[in-house]
Specification:
Radius of gyration: 24 Å
Helix content: 25-40%
Mean pLDDT: 91
CATH class of the largest domain: Alpha Beta
Largest sheet: 4 strands, antiparallel
Order of helices and strands: EEHEHEHEEHE
Strand order of the largest sheet: 5-6-4-7
Structural class: alpha+beta
CATH superfamily of the largest domain: Impact, N-terminal domain
Shape: elongated
Number of strands: 7
CATH topology of the largest domain: Ribosomal Protein S5, domain 2
CATH architecture of the largest domain: 2-Layer Sandwich
Number of domains: 2
Length: 169
């Protein structure tokens, strides 16, 4: 409202999934009931989007659109915006720092070739240091595999957890 103070309506919808539960909300912000927020929400649902919000700011231009016109206007606005947007899948991940001997680095590359693009930092000093984002649900298996192939010599440290856009595999 501060950014567009002259607008008449600020209609929105959001979908949030957290810990297995899903919440949805929409607002018509003074438009006739069901003509703005619900159409926005419907577009988000049809695209199967989660953890997303869409906001449409509308200025009244003097022409009454009617309920059907409002539904079409809000639907088309959100569809057009999403058509231009880059949709990114975010996963809740743990930063893992692995330090291992050079003799195990080749095995690491072979065993984890499918996730090498998730490496954010790679350092070659007296040992190899690897920082990599791992989805939280896969951390235990990842660490077990690291320990197994390095015969327990790899040092594993746990960093922050955050939502991360993982690169396509």
């Amino acid at each position: 409202r501060q950014e567009y103070p002259g607008a008449n309506h600020y209609c929105y919808a959001w979908i949030i999934r957290q810990e297995g539960s899903k919440s949805e909300r929409s607002s018509d912000d003074g438009e006739p009931s069901g003509t703005a927020g619900w159409p926005i929400l419907n577009v988000l649902q049809k695209m199967d989007l989660e953890n997303v919000m869409a906001l449409v700011v509308r200025y009244f231009g003097g022409t009454l659109l009617g309920t059907g016109g409002l539904v079409r206007a809000y639907t088309q606005s959100v569809q057009a915006a999403l058509d231009k947007a880059k949709i990114v899948k975010m996963e809740y991940c743990q930063m893992i720092m692995v330090t291992l001997d050079y003799s195990y680095y080749g095995s690491f590359e072979n065993q984890f070739s499918h996730i090498l693009q998730q490496i954010t930092d790679l350092q070659f000093t007296d040992r190899v240091g690897i920082k990599i984002w791992i989805p939280v649900g896969q951390v235990d298996g990842f660490v077990t595999r690291i320990k197994d192939f390095s015969q327990g010599s790899a040092v594993v440290e746990y960093g922050q957890q955050d939502f991360v856009a993982l690169k396509s595999q």
